[in-house]
Amino acid sequence: MLRKLTYVSLLILSMTACSSNNPEPPLQGEASHTKNASKSLDYRRNYKEVLASKSVLAIQTVKGPQAGNWSSGEKEMTLTINGHTYNMTDRIDITALPDGLLERKYDAKGKELLVAYPDNKIVETREKGTMYLYQQPYSVVIATLPTEYQYDGKSDPKGRLGKENTFQVKLVSGLPTSDDVIKSLNGKATYQGKAFANFGKGVETGELTYAIDFDSKKGSGSITGIDSTGKITLKEGSIGSASPFNPLSTAGRVKGISSSAETEKMKAYYYYVSIFGPKAEEVAGYVTGSRNSKEGEWHVGFGGEKQP
């Protein structure tokens, strides 16, 4: 039987690490330290739903949304950030962190099932690196850049490290905009925000502009300012299913847009954007490169808020 999931506040990430003998208490109701708690009536009214949508499993921040469904081979994992350790099924409350782009060092140790002939075996794994979190009031994008990786006693056996595609978006989560609201909206909305990536030369940030025509239910946009890619064009697509990187608990309810992307310097493939907030106040997602390109399947994360 799965042990009961626990909610563990991530407030310690922005403070001095706490002792494991004196852990942070779980958040209850509307926490006073939450930056967005007084931002708007809509945010306060929907705070419990926002909290639930941003309380992600620790294992999902490193392994992605498919992790934690007990069919992908993970047997054990601990995630240590700033000296505080979470078990694989502990839930991390992202709302305790401020808005904007944050970087935190992480160390994930685990055991996985290796299917092998003639006998399966349990192997030890370890991954260390930098976790990037881009938070908006109703959404969050989480990515990782591993700098050390060990599998069954071997260092980087699959050659994952030190490449343009080592940085990967792991989660796009938040309070989903309901289908009824999206159907009821009309006119055009412009979203502006940030994009971020790390192609091995340090974190690069850019500017996102994305427009949705709620009459035609289509959207398109661009990202500028990331030197490694040059301008990224997010071609027009129609509102439909959500980004595949949403956690399992909300993936079926989140609406979004997916379409092709182009860049000036690298070979892009597709982008995925999800719509968040009770009135479609935000978008968040990522761009992916072509796995057939010399850089591989690189990622750029992004998020934006609706402009007045």
Mind telling me the C-alpha Rg?
Answer: 19 Å
CATH architectural group of the largest domain: Beta Barrel
What is the third-level CATH name, the topology of the largest domain? Porin
The description of the largest β-sheet is:
8 strands, antiparallel, barrel
Number of helices: 4
Strand order of the largest sheet: 11-12-13-14-15-16-17-18
Secondary structure: helix percent: under 10%
Structural class label? mainly beta
Order of helices and strands: EHHEHEEEEEEEEHEEEEEEEE
Uncertain ranges: 1-34
The tally of beta strands, per DSSP, is 18
Shape: globular
Terminus-to-terminus distance: 49 Å
Calculate the mean pLDDT score and round it. 83
What is the percentage of strand-forming residues? over 45%
Query: How many distinct domains?
Result: 2
- Name of the CATH class of the largest domain: Mainly Beta
InterPro entries: FHBP-like_C, OMP/PagP_B-barrel
Protein name: Factor H binding protein-like C-terminal domain-containing protein
Keywords: Signal
Signal peptide: 1-19
What do you see in this structure?
The radius of gyration is 19 Å and the shape is globular. The longest helix is centred in the N-terminal third of the chain and has 7 residues, at 47-53. A hairpin with a 2-residue loop joins strand 3 and strand 4 (84-87). With 308 residues, it is mostly beta strands. The chain has 2 domains: 52-174, Immunoglobulin-like (Sandwich), CATH 2.60.40; 179-306, Porin, CATH 2.40.160.90. The chain has helices at residues 41-45, 47-53, 60-63, 179-184; strands at 7-9, 55-57, 74-81, 84-87, 91-93, 100-114, 121-135, 139-151, 154-155, 168-174, 188-198, 203-213, 218-224, 232-240, 256-263, 268-276, 282-289, 299-306. Residues 1-34 have low confidence and may be disordered. It starts with 6 loop residues before the first strand and ends with a strand. The strands form 3 sheets. An 8-stranded antiparallel barrel has the order 11-12-13-14-15-16-17-18. Strands 3, 4, 6, 7, 8, 9 and 10 form a 7-stranded antiparallel β-sheet that branches. It contains 4 helices and 18 strands.
